[in-house]
Amino acid sequence: xHIFVLGTGMIGTTVVTEMSKFxxxxxxxxxxxxxxxxxxxxxxxxSAKVIGKVAALKTEEDxxxxxxxxxxxxxxxxxxxxxxxxxAAIASHCHLVDLVGSQFMEKMDLNEQAKQAGVIIVPGCGxxxxxxxxxxxxxxxxxxxxxxxxxTCGGIPMHPIPPLWYQVVYRLESLLRLYTKPATAIEExxxxxxxxxxxLQEITFPEPVGLCETVITxxxxxxxxxxxxxxxxxxxxxxxxxxxEKMKVIGELGFLxxxxxxxxxxxxxxxxxxxxxxxxxxxxxxxxxxxxxxxEVTGTKDGKRTKxxxxxxxxxxxxxxxxxxxxxxxxxxxxxxxxxxxxKITETGVIPIESLIIRDRFQPFLDELKRLGIDIDYxxxxxxxxx
Length: 387
What we know:
By secondary structure, the protein is α/β, with parallel strands linked by helices. 33% of the residues lie in helices and 30% in strands. The chain has a 7-stranded parallel β-sheet, with helices on both faces. A hairpin with a 2-residue loop joins strand 13 (261-263) and strand 14 (266-268). 45% of the residues are buried.
């Protein structure tokens, strides 16, 4: 099985390195526009299975050309290239696992084309979207009637520093998109759009994290896929106390707007300007990070009030020398890829992860995550009525 990994940044390099350890995989081609990035990836992977390829990745045609002859690809590309990568994979008759969960309905419109091409496209295969999605789906499936599913996740620094108590793990552009995008959710069984950074609440995680805050952010595919199966569904993003209040003020002042303005003869946007200013304020003295996750699904089972709860506090991986966010984002994607490569997933079409990793595939997937270093605790609570 010949697998292509598109993009050799932090996540792509982690995918390549960990995938090269799987005996089921014969060859991995690491593709990037930058030779230096590829060279770094090859050095870290240190495997005879891995080869590098410099190629343009700007358009659907570019990506389709790269995927000619590929059996399966994992896209570790910016949000702006996600839809193009999926279209290119379908045109190239190549299975694709994509880390990006945005533009979900546009991707689902390609379902029949993917089926006709005989390939499976799995979007949103990271930690959130990704792990949170199928945990929520499994929790709902375990209940007779699901009232609420809340998916809470966030990457935070191990050693936060002021003024924002946060450090950039991915592209700041993607982060600010999350902060400004209306949040799709489910309320009373209907899809709704909530204001960005709304519903600020406190939350506490086990040490070394402690007290944090959450706001509602976009629920990606889960709101669409799980509509009709749960009354209320929300996704929330975690930060240390104070971060959200400051970012909300920045947004209210217009610095996160994406409408072009002229600045001393140069046309730009407030958001682009803010990116340049904020990036230096979102760098810490250490690369050590923590990824926190909590998914709670409540409802009734056999007439009893029941809650299913999964929780994860994952720390910087010193053994691999990679961030927790890189690990928890990359590993779900490569497990999905391995299941496709070994024909344990044989479906075709555009299929979200919450429709794939439930029921019989659920516990084996969690077991594989644990084997690879991601440990998710589970607790079921059954509430006995006092009446």
